[in-house]
Amino acid sequence: MAILEVKGIEKKFDNLEVLKGIDFSLEKGEVLAMIGVSGSGKTTLLRCLNFLEQPTAGVIQVGGKTIFDASNPNLLSEKEIRKNRQHFGMVFQSFNLFPQYTALRNVTLAKELQAKEQSDFKSNKKQVMEQLQKEGRELLESVGLGDKLDYYPHQLSGGQQQRVAIARALMLQPDILCFDEPTSALDPELTGEVLRVIRGLADRNTTMVIVTHEMKFAREVADQVLFMDKGVIVEHGTPEEIFEHPKEERTRQFLERYL
Ligand code: ADP
After folding, report:
1. Atom 26 in ligand 1: residue holding the nearest Cα
2. Which of 13, 168, 232, 254 ranks highest by number of CB atoms within 10 Å?
3. What is the pLDDT of residues 18-74, one digit of tens each?
4. How far is the CA of 118 from the centre of ligand 1 (A)?
5. Which one of 10, 11, 13, 210 would you pick to mutate in the ligand 1 pocket, going by the greatest count of ligand atoms within 8 A of its CB?
6. pLDDT band at 75 (very low <50, low <70, confident <90, very high)
7. CB-neighbour burial class of residue 28 (10 A; exposed 0-12, middle 13-18, buried 19+)
């Protein structure tokens, strides 16, 4: 069964139709790379998945359960949205770390806030906090930052900050990890270290949706590639189909510019 099913997603900002009926599905452990020129609607689609935007039409299902249905707004209580958002981890272009917290605290904070909402938190506080620290440390070690736990964002390079952001997203154990151009704010020499971490996650069968302009990387890690233009999916297939044998003229033109 598909872990993620996106059906007929549309999004309008006033009269501007940004998404015009997006359909795709993703199996557990698969990586979907989304490519396309700037302005084609990729970020908006990721934001719809994460409830940062509300689609004007369509259905989103996770693990067979409908978590969003534009025709049934009752699903959209604040509590429901917060719960549903947890299916998706987000890693943004610009890291978005909290500058006032260390790398470790950035990673553990969201889970700490969740733990505090549990009624038995006070009686278990010490163990819960120790467990969170342990998980956070292990995640930072897994992205190669075991020696930077107590560093603040401004003491880290862009690539290191982005790796903290990845660890932070993983901490909440999302079903689907989403990346919005994770390397486009980085100097070229820092891109490799972030792509290596994402490649490692793919090797460990992490389900991911990645918006990227790194075509070589998309070709290597993706199971499915989705080429978007002007709010529609122009072409959707395996990396081989899209990169080696594109059927559509628009895909060919795009690839000529980016490959
Ligand atoms: P991409 O990620 O492919 O560059 P985006 O999803 O960022 O594309 O943008 C698609 C289109 O939607 C653009 O024309 C952009 O200006 C428009 N857009 C995005 N967000 C908003 C918004 N909040 N209000 C109005 N227009 C928006």
Report:
1. 13
2. 168
3. 999 999 999 999 999 999 999 999 999 999 998 899 999 999 999 999 999 999 867
4. 38
5. 13
6. low
7. middle
Query: Which ipTM score applies to this complex?
Result: 0.97
pLDDT of residue 118: 86
Quote the pTM value.
Answer: 0.94
- How many angstroms separate the alpha carbon of residue 113 from the centre of ligand 1? 31
